[in-house]
Amino acid sequence: MPQSDLFGLEMLWKLESANLADKADAMMLFVHWFLVRNGFRNVGVGDDKTLNNAVDQSELLPEGWNGNNKSYALRYIMNNELYILHGTLSNDTMIVNLLQAQSLQVSNAAFNLDKTITSFNDSSLTNAVVSIDDQITRLQTELIKPLCEGGSKSSSTQTLISSSPSPAQVNAVPAAGPRRIEVLRPSGLLLPFGGVGRGDLNPLGGFVGGGGGGGMLMDPMNMRPGRADPFLPGARIDPMGPFPPRVQRPNPNPDHLPPPGYDDMFM
């Protein structure tokens, strides 16, 4: 970052150097300067979320801002919106939060004091802050940008997709495609052997359900188009029912027992 962006830092450091008690105070002074440099104005201490437009706005730190050097709370205003800066010391780490009071969006950044601030009683804050350009970049990207350029890092927006179809989808004409052919069955006829393998389970497949025939090994009712005889040739069965007369078959009749010694090779 160009050195011109550090305008006002030395003056603020000179004004508050006598009030600094430790590195935590120096860190919060540095954050305050950065906010003021970006258009924020201080309107007092505390975490009250109500905004009084009659309060004085200042570039300086308010009286008593570091009364508790373990926890800091400062109020700022920018573009008629109230922001609250919190600083909390945890071991050697300063956790800085910036809250937008109206939307309750919050951003945060954490700094190790020993690695960020070399000394709180140095004659110049630019020398007291380690790699000051890098620290300014962190404050910009982690503290300011989430609130002022795209919302909070700690909150996310979820897009809810309605499961109900839109009117355009309801009235849409379905795209052309292969048409499904429905098989019509006689009304009132129950098919207890539906599904895959019906032909293997339904002995009446030749009459009921249409197509496929029965699943019996020797189907006596092989009613297929073009057959004059509804029975298998040589079937060993005498079906009963309203069927045409049996065709006279030549001897030997397969229903008769074989003669004695039929399978004796020496006869």
TrEMBL record:
Compositionally biased region (Pro residues): 241-261
Gene Ontology MF annotations: endopeptidase inhibitor activity; proteasome binding
Localisation per UniProt entry: Cytoplasm; Endoplasmic reticulum
Annotated Pfam families: PI31_Prot_N
Keywords in alphabetical order: Acetylation, Cytoplasm, Endoplasmic reticulum, Methylation, Phosphoprotein, Proteasome
The keyword Phosphoprotein appears for this protein: yes
InterPro entries documented for this protein: PI31-like, PI31_Prot_N
Annotated spans, Disordered: 150-172, 239-267
Sequence ranges assigned to domain PI31 proteasome regulator N-terminal in this UniProt record: 17-153
Superkingdom of origin: Eukaryota
Biased composition (Low complexity): 152-166
GO cellular-component term (any): proteasome complex
One Gene Ontology term from the biological process aspect of the record: proteasome-mediated ubiquitin-dependent protein catabolic process
Function of the molecule: Plays an important role in control of proteasome function. Inhibits the hydrolysis of protein and peptide substrates by the 20S proteasome. Also inhibits the activation of the proteasome by the proteasome regulatory proteins PA700 and PA28.
The family this protein is said to belong to: Belongs to the proteasome inhibitor PI31 family.
Listed name of the protein: Proteasome inhibitor PI31 subunit
Organism: Anopheles quadriannulatus
